Every structure is written in structure tokens, then in C-alpha cells.
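User: My advisor asked me to double-check a structure prediction for NFXL1 protein before group meeting. I don't want to rely on an old file, so could you generate it fresh from this sequence?
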Amino acid sequence: LSSQRKFDEIKKANQAAAKKLVEDQFSSSSEDDDEDAEVKQGKILAKTFTVYTSQTDGDASELERTRQYMNEAFQSGAMTCLICIASVKRNQAVWSCCGCFCIFHLVCIQKWAKDSLFLVSSPLTDDDFGKRDYPWPCPKCRFEYKRSETPSRYYCYCGKVENPVLDPWLVPHSCGQICEREFKPPCGHKCLLLCHPGPCPPCPKMITTTCHCKKAKPVPRRCSAKEWSCHLPCGRMLLCGQHTCENPCHSGSCQPCPRVSKQWCICGRQTAERLCASPQWQCDQVCGKALPCGNHTCEQVCHAGPCGDCPRSGKRSCPCEKSKFTLPCTEDVPTCGDSCDKVLECGIHKCSQRCHRGPCEICRQEVEKQCRCGKHTKRMPCHKPYLCETKCTKIRDCQKHQCRRKCCSGNCPPCDQVCGRTLGCRNHKCPSGCHRGSCNPCPETVDVKCNCGRTVIKVPCGRERTIKPPKCKQLCSRPPTCHHPTQEKHYCHFGRCPPCRQSCQKTLTCGHLCPVSCHDEALVKQTGLHQSAGPWEQPSEPAFIQTALPCPPCEVPIPVECLGQHEVSLLPCHSAGPYSCKRFCGRLLDCQNHTCMKECHHVTKINSSADGKKAGPECLQCEEECTKPRPSGCPHRCVLPCHPGDCPSCLQMLKIKCHCKLSTLYIECL
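Assistant: Sure, here is a fresh prediction for NFXL1 protein from the sequence you gave:
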């Protein structure tokens, strides 16, 4: 049982390790930079856009913005949570803003919403804590969401599937189903792409619609471009009621009539040239018509309708409004003689003067006044404000700085200092007013460029130090560092260019071209530069220097004849020269009987017409005896050394007897 238990524990541990390895393989936005990953990404994008492009006959020009968001979803480090300034990985729960489509970690946006609601609804800033539904903003675009819209679960982009399964053949955080979100602005149709990040593309449906002025015949057009103009004159009646709109067919209301005509003012005394769109206007003359009383004239400036009754007719009150008099309009209302008793500007005391015309005087009564902060009192005229010199020591709503306002009532104003804390990007400081809690993310974006600067991606400020530069498809434009006029074609990159692999093609001393790879910048290992102090010293890494190596010896095969002209062999150009083939010379000696037995050697020709197989001065001299056959009957050797031609006659004396053996003669051998 114990062995079985151990086996099960090891099995579970191995399965957990394998699962973690698979998740880590797809954890980043895009960590495969090889060609297979690009092909795979292209297939996923094509699959996502298939339904849309089938409606547009293959036209994908309206998908560029959505394609950009999807490419960022695949690209390593391009999707960054602006709250924690960390990469958004495939296997992490995320939330997407419906205003700017920026993607955040679900945990980060939940904490952001909670902190924002706490700061806005804090009792230090509002007494209605918990009673009002305060909104919280998106960290990037400041789009406001209700408290009830705080995300609590992880959904795909289209919102259909909760906790979408990690699938390497789908866009990260996508469910793979058709989006079906309503287009903006609403047109009655739904998005046809597969579940995707970013905004939905324009509606691709075809509908039949007419122009703005309704004069042209209805034509089929895409729903996203259903508003169109026939460019004919609009012809609608303008507000002036006299002229028609002459602008080309347009949307919305017609512009005011641009024509000018003579218009009478309201009172009808003056005329002026004015725009047809604003016919009513006032001149600057006083009306001056006699009022019904017959004693006064109308004092209104250029008006329409009757002037009305005389403003001095009927019952009129005295200045203190305690007594009323019925007098002719030609007489002024007298003062009543009673006390004024109007409330003064202080709002506490009343005017003690008799009924009078004009404004009341300021309050001059001596009162015991308390300062605004309530710490001091002083006896002084009622109309003067009393502010002491005591500075407020309360902490403002930022919870950092004191109020320091003289004679503060306790309702301290918000802190007017700039926050100035370094933001998470480490490049900028917070420009907001002094506040509690975390600062908003840095709103700036930084361009990360390739080496040549033609390929650019925008990343949140602070990520430019960790993001990989974009892969550029432009060819490297650096000048070659070797002797070649142009370098091998390769893509834009950082650092040194790869070693030149072109053929050297330098002219050697022999006249041939060097065929090996370029060796102007060869890495050569340096040896013997550092002597170790003892066996305790660790050996250092070998140092390499970049230097130009000389061209190797020429290896072009050259046909070369041996010294004795026995054979022709192909030798490397650098070693092409007279050589011995190690055979016997074989040239016929002067004796015409033997050949030279020396090893293949140089032979000097005495004259140009000499036979090529005749021995020369360098060949051996024949020292043999003559071995030619003697005439029949001659037992003697040739007295000459080995020689050409026939041997001379033998002159040796022989002693012979006659046939009967009685006589002896001495005669030559011949």
C-alpha cells in the first residue's frame, strides 16, 4: 500500500509538471519568433476574417484597425496592463474597456475600481458615503463605469463565454465563436468576425439607400457607407421662406440663407442691408411715442407692439414701501416720514434713517464678532469682516499637507499642490493635484523602433526598456565593412552585421581570384597574452580579435610537365613548378645502345632541332663494354667501349695449323 501511495504521488507530480510546461509554452503573448509561428498567426487571422471577407468579396481594407489589435495580441510584450506595467499573458484573466479597448488584468482592474470608488466616496470628501452610485473611470480613456459594472468574472472579448479555454489556434482570450456585437453606430446588423479584441469593423452588409436630398434613385451600398450625396443642388426651402438651398446634396439641416437684402428694423424707422437669415433687428433709437397719459413718452429702444401704460400711473409706494399714494403721473411720490427699517447688507440690523430715496448706508453698529475659525473674538463695526492671523493646521484631503490658510473655517479647500511623485514608468512625474492612493498610469506612449527606424510599435511609457524591438522586413542598409562593394542581403537588425559569406575574389599574385569566403573580419584566438600567477588562478576565457587574414595559397590546378617530359600532372597553382616524376630518365645515350638510368631530371637541349628523346649533357655517360655479337668464329671481345655502329675488324693474331697438322701459320683473326 505504501508503494502504491508513493507511485500515485509521483504520478500526480509529473502530471502537474507537464501541465505547467504546456501552460508556460503559451503563457506569453507571442514568444515564437520563427517562421512557423508567423505562418500559424496568419492562419488564425485569416480564419477570424473569413466570414467578413466573404461579404466584401475579399476586400479587407476596413479591417486594418482590428488587425492591429490582433497583431498586438500575438506580439510579445505588446499587450501591457497599464495598472501594473506588466505583460498580459495568454493564460491570465483579463478585462477589456469598451471605450478604448485597452486590456487589463482582471485582478488589477478590480483593485483599480475599488480604490477609485473609495477615494471618490470617502467621508472626507462627501457626507453621502454609500448613498450615491459613484462611477469609476477606465485608467486609460477615463470612460466612466457604474459601481454595478465592476468586472467580477473573466469573459471572452464578445462576452459569450466565461473563462474561455486556452487554445493555441485561437486569438488569445477569444472563444472562437462569431462576435455578434452590435455595430456602432447601431444599424441593425451584428459583427461577423470571430471573437476578437479591439473595435468591430464597419458593417459590410449591402443595402439599398437613396441620397440625402432624396432626389436620386436608390442604389445598393454598404451599410457602413449608406449616407451619400448625389452632388445635385439641395433645393429645400430655407427658413427665410424666400430662397431655396443651393448647396450640393448634404446631410443634416440646411445652412442659413447667405443672401443679403434690405430689412426694416422692429420699430420700422430704419432699413439696412442684412442677411436674409436674420431679418429681425433693432435700431438704437428710443421709441419716443406718447404714452396714454399724454404727459410722458415711451423710453424703450426700438420695440414691437404697443408701448403700454405709463409706469408712473396707478398707486405708487414711498421709498420704504410702508405707505401708498395715488397721485398724477406728473408728481413724484413723497417720503412718508416713518423709519426706513430695511434690512442692511449685514442681514442682522435694520436701517434707522427716516424714509429716504437711494440705497441705505452701511451698518455701523459695534458688535462682538467671532473670527471665521472660531478661536478669537473682537468688538468692531458690523460691516467689517474679522479674520484672525492663526493658520490652520488641519491636514488636507491629500493626507499629506497642512491647510496653512489664515483663519480657516474648517472646510479646508482641496490641496493645490502638484503630486510630483514618480510614476510607474520611471520616466515622468504625476502632473495631477496632490491626492491619496496610487497615481494614475502614465498616459504617454513610447515608440519602439527597429534599427533603421522604419518599423515602429507604440508601447506604454516604461515598457520600452523591456520590450523586444519589432521585427523589420526592410533590408539592412549599412555599408559593408569588408572590401566588397555591397554586402549580402539580410533584414534590418541591431548589433554588428553577420560575417560576410561572399567569395573573396581578390586577385592573387598568380593572377587568379581568391575563391574562399571573405576573410577581412576573421575572429582569431589570442594565445599567450596572460600568464597565470599560479595554479589558484582561474583560467580566463580565450580572447578573440577581429583581423584581416591573408588570402590562402592558390589551389587552381595547373597542368605541369615533369623535368624529363615523361608526363603532365595537375598541380595547385601555388606549388606549380618543375618536378621530378621519380621515373628513370630513359633517354638514349650517345652509345645508341643504352638509356639514361638517372631519376627524372632536367635535360638541356643543345639545339632546337634535337630529338626530344636524345640524351643531354646532364645524362649519364655509358661506361659499359661493347656487348655486340662477334662475327662467327671470332672468340675475342671488341676492343672499344660501348659504341654506336658496327665493331671494327678483329686484328688479333691467331696461331693455326693446316689441315694435316704439319705446318703452323700466324694470321689475323679476320
